[in-house]
Amino acid sequence: MQYARLDLVENDGRNDLQETARSSKSLYISHFISTWNSRGFEFGAVLFLSTIYPGTLLPMSVYALCRALAAIIFSPVVGKHIDSGNRLSVIRLSILGQRLAVAASCAAFLTLLALQDVLPAILAYALFTGLILLACIEKICIIMNTIAVERDWVIVITADNERLLQEMNAQMRRIDLFCKLVSPLSIALLDGISSEMAIFTTLWLNSTTVVAEYFLIAWVYRRTPALSEPPARSAPETSGRGQDDSTRALFRGMFKTMLKQARLYENSHAFLPSLSLALLFLTVLSFSGQMITYLFAIEYPRLTSAHIGILRTIATILEISSTFITPRLISHIGVVRTGIWSLSWQCLFLTPGLATFWFGSSLSPVLTTYLFIVCVILSRVGLWSFDLTAQLLVQNSVDASQRGSFSAVESSLQNFFELCTFAMTIVWSRPEQFKYPAIISLAALYTAAACYARFARVERGHLLHVPLCCSSVSGYKAFRTDEEGEELRVVGR
Q1: Does residue 198 contact residue 48 with C-beta atoms inside 8 Å?
Q2: Exposed end of the chain (fewer CB within 10 Å): N or C?
Q3: Smallest Cα–Cα separation from 214: which of 391, 30, 409?
Q4: What is the pLDDT of residue 17?
Q5: pLDDT of residue 308
Q6: Considering only CA atoms, which of 90, 84, 91, 71 is closest in space to residue 26?
């Protein structure tokens, strides 16, 4: 009888794992569709604006700045909605909102592209203003979808299985990085043939895939009963002023929500790892718009689009490799030490890379440029390794009822620091001034490392292992550790 019960438990465990595996595959497909469309539209919008408004960066800069500002302002409201709303309704709202915003944006792009020479100025400005508003809606919906899936659904689906959670985090990040490389590249190739073709393709993909994503996410929801169980809610706050539906009351409520979530974020155990990750967004040392523009502006060696494409592909391949390396590293040395190693890896390569700007005048321009590029490419392994590490720490530290609020504040910080990078390249806009934003980016990295070092020191009781032979030295305490690097007891003083 006991053996029969054991077999029943084992069969139930296997069935649960098989069900989780099926749900995971559907979630991966849904996430791939969402990420492919968002990455393609984000990059395509820059190309379309460049075609419509040639010879100026102003429209694109205003478009990107307003999009980032919307993310900063409305992320806390999005987080509150995720924590309080039905999980399936939240995801479906994000899917439909993003697709409708993209469809309307494509219609506006086509109108501006076809009629820009005959449109009255006021109508052209109105369409551009509409594009900015639609971009803000699209960005907010993408944030809602990303936070809900990566910071809530994944945790619920894995049901506290640490190894499975690490595996799903890594797979989701591989999807992100693959789409980050291939989707923009596809749009760029189509735009090279015809901008109208690229816009129509973007519109067609967003319109035809919405049905698949809409029902895939519902299938995952129905196959995972735990998703229908709402997390423990905190007691709702009541207003002492009665009914006040004025605009001022609305903004007052938004401000109170932001303030409350900021306090929650600061008091969380995962505050320092999350802040460290957000600080890494204050960088121009990646294959994004600022650095690519700088590389194109270098007179010697002259880099073409093909060169940039090859270098960006190599960087993305290394970034994807980090999603295979990091779970194994975590299993051997622990999640906290993996974060230390990841940030140290970035510092190890970006420091000499930045030194070429300040002390490389005696070297040849070719050597200086390629040394800088190689250092940036290699540093990306550490960046995405730390991204996975910080995400795991947040997932394991934040209560279920606060995941959306915490991640929304984190998203606001990330967008704020990203916004600062645009401001830096506006202030120092000439190619020879790129070294100033670059050195600020390196300073942000070291600040992130210092914040995480503080977290690691508190979490582990020490930052670096002190050899037992040094335990007798005045002022030192040596820790005996297990195989994963966690302290067991203090030896000596």
Answers
A1: yes
A2: N
A3: 30
A4: 54
A5: 75
A6: 91
Pairing of strands 478-481, 487-491: antiparallel
**Neighbour-count burial of 472, counting CB atoms closer than 10 A to its CB (0-12 exposed, 13-18 middle, 19+ buried):** exposed
Q: What is the Cα–Cα distance from 216 to 21, expressed in whole angstroms? A: 14
User: What is the tens place of the pLDDT at every residue in 255-302?
Assistant: 666 677 778 777 888 889 989 999 999 988 887 767 877 777 777 777
Q: What is the mean pLDDT of each run of 10 residues along the chain (493 residues)?
A: 42 53 81 90 82 73 82 81 83 91 92 83 89 92 88 81 82 86 82 85 90 88 81 48 48 64 79 91 82 76 74 85 88 89 93 81 77 91 90 81 77 85 80 86 94 87 56 41 42 35
As a dihedral over the C-alpha atoms of residue 475, residue 476, residue 477, residue 481, rounded to 10 degrees, the angle is 170
For residues 149 and 31, is the Cβ–Cβ distance under 8 A?
A: yes
Task: Take residue 327 and report the two structure tokens written for it.
Answer: 């779970």
Find the length of the chain.
493
Residue 191: partners with Cβ closer than 8 Å, 6 or more residues away: 44, 47, 48, 51, 197, 198
The closest alpha carbon to 113, from 47, 170, 169, belongs to 47
Inter-residue contact 131 to 59 (CB < 8 Å): no
What is the structure's pLDDT at 354? 87
For residue 248, what pLDDT is reported?
A: 57
User: What amino acid is encoded at 346 in this protein?
Assistant: Q
Q: What is the pLDDT of residues 234-266, one digit of tens each?
A: 444 444 444 445 545 545 655 666 677 778 777
* Phi and psi angles of residue 159, each rounded to the nearest 5 degrees, phi first: 55, 55
Query: What is d(CA 63, CA 364) in angstroms, rounded to the nearest whole number?
Result: 38
Q: Among candidates 251, 254, 272, 218, which has minimal Cα distance to 79? A: 254
Which pLDDT belongs to residue 360? 65
Give me the torsion for CA of 404, 408, 409, 412, rounded to 10°: 180
374 neighbors 381 (Cβ within 8 angstroms): no
pLDDT, position 452: 93
CB 41 within 8 A of CB 202: yes
Sign of CA dihedral 278, 280, 283, 285: negative
User: CB count, 10 Å around CB of 462?
Assistant: 16
**H helical segments located in 224-303:** 247-267, 271-279, 289-297
Q: Over the range 202-216, which residues count as b (16 or more CB within 10 Å of their CB) and which as e?
A: bbebbeebbeebbeb
Nearest in space to 424 (alpha carbons), one of 275, 274, 294, 287: 294
Dihedral sign for Cα 483, 150, 322, 301, please. negative
- Measured between alpha carbons, how far is 109 from 181 in angstroms, rounded to an integer? 23
Alpha carbon distance, N-terminus to C-terminus of the chain:
55
Q: Is the pTM of this model over 0.90?
A: no
